[in-house]
Structures are given as structure tokens and as C-alpha cells.
Task: inverse folding
């Protein structure tokens, strides 16, 4: 099943909106995450057992990012295809390699002169080979998933079945959507979790505060009987602050204007490509006091929010519009509900089992499509 030209990323204008409208009714429904809570929780429990097996005698995991990548693969295998990929046992090495090559090539394409637009460069050939490997993997698993879902009700809560209930979505559109979710979901969620755990391990007083709040809100996080994930306020604050400290993408939302607009007294004409520099704004004192410090408390309601005054005199709280890790508006991330739920689950369940310790040098940011740590994050897991 050829899906190369039918994903949201490849569509434009009305053609894009036709598919987006169908998908968001299911994917961005606030209740959609509940369909996958039990599945994600089960995989996270297996992940914690895996960490216990891979840490050394002193409790160190040499590269938490590598292990989180395996977790992302396993979660996506379950919610996208209803199958386990055995990634904790180094399963599907060819898919791992193809995903890495895909993102390496995409990152390389952003630098220098785009000669790959003129002829098939070595980089483009590597990218093409990797995408062929991934397309074969996606198509085989998608077809197998559909067949098994016809034979058993066990698969009723995986993404394909939920979307198939929307009669206007074609199989080709569905396959391309699942493929895009799988590709983007591995790298983005892995890097986000890597930085979130690093920040908590580097700030033990914040970590302890979060641990106490998690245990106070939900002693067992979660149980299989829960219909939705309970998120303690300080947990969401810690995640938001990690997003602020390390913005997950190179830039924020960007749009090609379809009409002239006025922004803060500047007239920007139709057709101009506007890119929001959210990563820069996240570190500006104008919006965040002590902007270089990790302070989750700034996101709690009882703290006075910073404000910005516009040229027309209106004063507003700018923070919600500065930290937009999943984008904003009609083009916000279609997989947001599932990604957020995985992030909260992993952090909460890891802290319930371990105290996280980081005693290495400061981790810096490597600028890629999805920002990544500049070196392996070596975490020590101390049993609680």
C-alpha cells in the first residue's frame, strides 16, 4: 500500500483539511487517551523491569535516551498496530536503523545547499533506502493489524480501529496517518522524556517535591481500572518547565500568511513566511523571571504570572503562547494526547520506583528537527 503522498505532512490547503478534520475528531478528543491508558501503563511497567536489568552494579543506566527509544517503539507498536515489537530485547534492528537514518538525513538536509533537489545525492539515496524499509514495515504491520482486528475484539482500542469507525477515512489515509505517527512519535517523545528526566535528576529538591505529590495524589499510578490519567499539578508543571528549558523543535509554529496582518504595529503582507522563535522567547526575562533557572513552580496558579503589554495597551499573560511544544490551533500535533500521556506515565512511575541522580557535566542541546541531548545522559537509579 503506497502511502507516500497521502499523509498530513504531504497535504496542503483543502486537501489537508479534509483529512485533518476527520482525524482530529478522534485523535484530539480529550477522552481519546483513556483508550490507551492500560496499554501504555503495561508497556511502561515492562520498561521499568527492563531498566532494572540493564543498569550496572552501581545503578547506572549508561544512556537513558537509548532505553527510552526502545520504550517509544514498544508503545507505538501497541497503540498503532496492536502488537509487541520486542524492542527491549533489541527487536526490529532494521527499523531502528532506518528511523535513525531518516532523521539523520532530514537533519542534514537543513544544512548547506540543497543539491538533493537537483539530483540523487548519497544522502538522498540513504534517505530513500531507509524510507523504503519503513514503508515495508508499516504496510506489513498495518495489514496484519486489520486482519487480527476482524478476528478478535481484543484490538478494539488501537488507533486503526478507532479511526475506522469514522466511515469517511480510507485505508490509504489511515495507513499513512499511522505511519506518520510512528515515525514522528519515536524521536520526539524520546528526546522530550530524556530532557525531562535529566532536569529532575539535576534538581533533587524538585524531584522530591514531585515524588511526594505523586504519592499523595495517586499512590498507585495508575491502576488498570482508571478511565483517565490523574495528573498532579506539580507533574504538569515540571513537564511544562522542561519544555520551556529545552524547546522540542528548532522553531515554533510557522505559517505562510494568506492575508495581510498587523502584529504589534507591524504590517506583514500576504505570502510572507512567518516563523515564531519560541525557543528564544522561552529564555527571555521579558516573559519568564530567572529564565535560565529550572523553576516548575512558575506554572502553578498560585504564583503570579508574568505579563506583557502590547502597543494597543492590553496586558496579557504570554506564557501559554510562548511554550507551545505541540504547536497551536488547527495544525497542532495530531498525536498530542498519546505523547503527553506517555510522558506523564513514565516520569511518575519512574519516580515511584527510583530516585534519579545525575552527576555528570551539564547536558547541552544539539539542534536538530527534534532537539536532542549533545551527549548520552547517564542516570543513576536508586531504589526507593
Result:
Amino acid at each position: 500500500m503506497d502511502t507516500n503522498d497521502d499523509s498530513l505532512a504531504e497535504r496542503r490547503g483543502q486537501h489537508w483539511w479534509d483529512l485533518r478534520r476527520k482525524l482530529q475528531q478522534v485523535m484530539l478528543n480529550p477522552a481519546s487517551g483513556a483508550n490507551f491508558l492500560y496499554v501504555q501503563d503495561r508497556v511502561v511497567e515492562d520498561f521499568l523491569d527492563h531498566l532494572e536489568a540493564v543498569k550496572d552494579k552501581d545503578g547506572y543506566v549508561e544512556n537513558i535516551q537509548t532505553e527510552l527509544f526502545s520504550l517509544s517503539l514498544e508503545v507505538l507498536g501497541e497503540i498503532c498496530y496492536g502488537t509487541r515489537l520486542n524492542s527491549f530485547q533489541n527487536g526490529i534492528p532494521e527499523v531502528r536503523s532506518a528511523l535513525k537514518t531518516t532523521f539523520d538525513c532530514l537533519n542534514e538536509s537543513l544544512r548547506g545547499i540543497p543539491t538533493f533537489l537537483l539530483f540523487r545525492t548519497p544522502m538522498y539515496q540513504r534517505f530513500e533506502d531507509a524510507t523504503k524499509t519503513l514503508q515495508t514495515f508499516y504496510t506489513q504491520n498495518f495489514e496484519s493489524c486489520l486482519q487480527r482486528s476482524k478476528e478478535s475484539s481484543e484490538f478494539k482500542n488501537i488507533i486503526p480501529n478507532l479511526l475506522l469507525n469514522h466511515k469517511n477515512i480510507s485505508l490509504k489515509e489511515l495507513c499513512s496517518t499511522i505511519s506518520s505517527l510512528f515515525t514522528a512519535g519515536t524521536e520526539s517523545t524520546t528526546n522530550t522524556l530524556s530532557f525531562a528526566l535529566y532536569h529532575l535528576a539535576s534538581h533533587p529538591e524538585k524531584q522530591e517535591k514531585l515524588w511526594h505529590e505523586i504519592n499523595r495524589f495517586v499512590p498507585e499510578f495508575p491502576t488498570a481500572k482508571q478511565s483517565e490519567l490523574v495528573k498532579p499539578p506539580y507533574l504538569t508543571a515540571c513537564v511544562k518547565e522542561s519544555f520551556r528549558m529545552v524547546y522540542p523543535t528548532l522553531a515554533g509554529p510557522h505559517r505562510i500568511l494568506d492575508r495581510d496582518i498587523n502584529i504589534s504595529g507591524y504590517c506583514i503582507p500576504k505570502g510572507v513566511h512567518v516563523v515564531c522563535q519560541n525557543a528564544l522567547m522561552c529564555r527571555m526575562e521579558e516573559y519568564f523571571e530567572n529564565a535560565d533557572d529550572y523553576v516548575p513552580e512558575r506554572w502553578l496558579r498560585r504564583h503570579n504570572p508574568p505579563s506583557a503589554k502590547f502597543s494597543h495597551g492590553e496586558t496579557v499573560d504570554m506564557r501559554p503562547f510562548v511554550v507551545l511544544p505541540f504547536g497551536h490551533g488547527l495544525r497542532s500535533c495530531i498525536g498530542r494526547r498519546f505523547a503527553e500521556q506517555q510522558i506523564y506515565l513514565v516520569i511518575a512511575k519512574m519516580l515511584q520506583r527510583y530516585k534519579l541522580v545525575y552527576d555528570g557535566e551539564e547536558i547541552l542541546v544539539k539542534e536538530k528537527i527534534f532537539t536532542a541531548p549533545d551527549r548520552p545522559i547517564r542516570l543513576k537509579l536508586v531504589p526507593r
Q: What stands out?
A: The mean pLDDT is 87. The chain is about 50% helix and 10% strand.
